[in-house]
Amino acid sequence: xxxxxxxxxxxxxxxxxxxxxxxxxxxxxxxxxxxxxxxxxxxxxxxxxxxxxxxxxxxxxxxxxxxxxxxxxxxxxxxxxxxxxxxxxxxxxxxxxxxxxxxxxxxxxxxxxxxxxxxxxxxxxxxxxxxxxxxxxxxxxxxxxxxxxxxxxxxxxxxxxxxxxxxxxxxxxxxxxxxxxxxxxxxxxxxxxxxxxxxxxxxxxxxxxxxxxxxxxxxxxxxxxxxxxxxxxxxxxxxxxxxxxxxxxxxxxxxxxxxxxxxxxxxxxxxxxxxxxxxxxxxxxxxxxxxxx
Length: 293
What we know:
This protein is α+β, with helices and mostly antiparallel strands. Helices cover about 60% and strands about 15% of the residues.
């Protein structure tokens, strides 16, 4: 089985029920320089976090990952009267009745509606099945890995197309730059010939050195050779696929360096236009590479 490219972007959800509780895991992942984990767990579930962090560390290498757990009871809890609170409000109500002549006797529904008289049955007993919830997290994490790989497959296709475009622009630039040094030398010689007619005392040796230097500065063969090497290196990274994000990001910087130098050395409008198209395609590669794990 070949390696598959993984994105740092993805979403996964898992849900279930256990011990009268309904729970939902939601995992979100976005770009990050390293692996940054944030867990949002209900009170009392914090003891699960170390093991969950370890599981994520084994499955993912980069990305900002947020894991949110929501837990709620499947049905409303049964209400019961709090004996102490009921006794207290009943005593107060009967005392008021005796103090106010002709007032009606306290009504049960009115007393039960007072704050604190009714409470959920077993309100202090929270049943936690951490095993089932942990298994749900494992399912959500596996789904997140799958989602990131699916996004990675789309990234690989996009990057392959962009590298093909860059390779075609490289071939065009090589053809356009083939005659650039000779053309630049001829142009400089014409300008110097006109200058010598006006100032014949200039040393010919010095003039020849300057012409050679200007011609060398317009030679972009080294930049084109390095660019071709970078294209092959990028294709090799795509074939390697696993944990290549940082290296690919660095390689894109080298792409940009060669494209910038090509444009600065260009002595023709057509070569400059091709260089600008190269820079635009390389920028699209850079944007896509930011998503690679």
